[in-house]
Amino acid sequence: MACSSCSTGKDGQPRGCKNNGTCGTDGCNKLTVFDWLSNMSLPNGQKPFDCVEVRFKNSRKEFYRNTENLTLSIGDVVATQAKSGHDVGVVTLTGELVRIQMTRKKVSIDDKTIPKIYRKASQRDIDIWQKCRDREEEIKKRSREIAISLKLEMKLSDVEFQGDGSKATFYYTAEDRVDFRQLIKDMAKAFGIRIEMRQIGYRQEAQRLGGIGSCGRELCCSTWLTDFRSVSTASARYQQLALNPQKLAGQCGKLKCCLNYELDMYLEALKDFPPSDCKLKTQKGLAFCQKADIFKETLWFSYKDEPATWHTLSKDQVLEILELNKKGDKVASLEEYAADNVAEEKTTFENVVGQDSLTRFDRPKNKKRRKKKRRKPKSKASFNAK
């Protein structure tokens, strides 16, 4: 959230729209796409692609056809076609990258039902749009009170007005199916607008609302992540993470999407790695695996009778012992293998000054007594001269 319109000024106060991340301009890092073809001109005779990508409140994006051949650029506010009336959004992408985005999202380029752009938004359109946006928080609070009074088991998470102010879309989450017919009647009577209810999942709710994750950065789902893949506890087990729901769950209450980011690398490393439930048969007794470090290729084993004493073995040593166990042979003990893995501690710090101690200034200094020079007595001849 460091766009030119939302960043702070010299006095520390927000400048521009002063919304700090919820502004209408496309500078708040909400699913933005870098147009790397913006400085390249089209070949001779090729017409520019007639579709553009428009973003509305939060992370809702739609594709629209530029039938009027308007000169549009990223950041322009446009009036677009809606089911009834018109909507107002911000252009986020133009040119050939829109064709790539439509193919990626499986939207047919030749689809004639794609809505169109009416015009660039006038100042009157923007004023009505901003006025409706200012009413959203108040209406959301009032609609929650109505839902609570009707004892509906649902959570109204967000409200989005249409650009002309004729309709409002209420996004909600619920565990089961909710009968909100009476809720729509009460809200339409209280607000005097057409109501549309849209149920979303918990991940989509976090995507729309945004926030800061435990890593200190903005949520991936609200900044760049568009496809929500299923995340299971097996992803945490493969990465040897503690199955703590408080640490593994995101703000949506589900498992964090980032658990899948490094999963493929762990699975590839585990292909030639001994299983975590392997048992080593020795003459001293049966040994169980207590811990494994995939990247250091190290495993820790302990005997059944001595679970508190761990022995460090390398991956190759464990595979060698397992191969011997398959043939019916037993090794003498794990200590013989673990003795080869004892690494000498290397000093990572060397005193470049020499033998000087860091506490040399803490020692009290010995005060040297200065010897006073004794004055020689003057001779009698000098007194007689005076």
From TrEMBL:
Region (Disordered) residue spans: 356-386
Ranges of biased composition (kind: Basic residues): 365-379
NCBIfam families: RicT_YaaT_fam
Protein name in UniProt: PSP1 C-terminal domain-containing protein
A Pfam family recorded for this sequence: PSP1
Domain PSP1 C-terminal: 115-200
InterPro entries membership: PSP1-like (IPR047767), PSP1_C (IPR007557)
Organism from which the protein derives: Flagellimonas abyssi
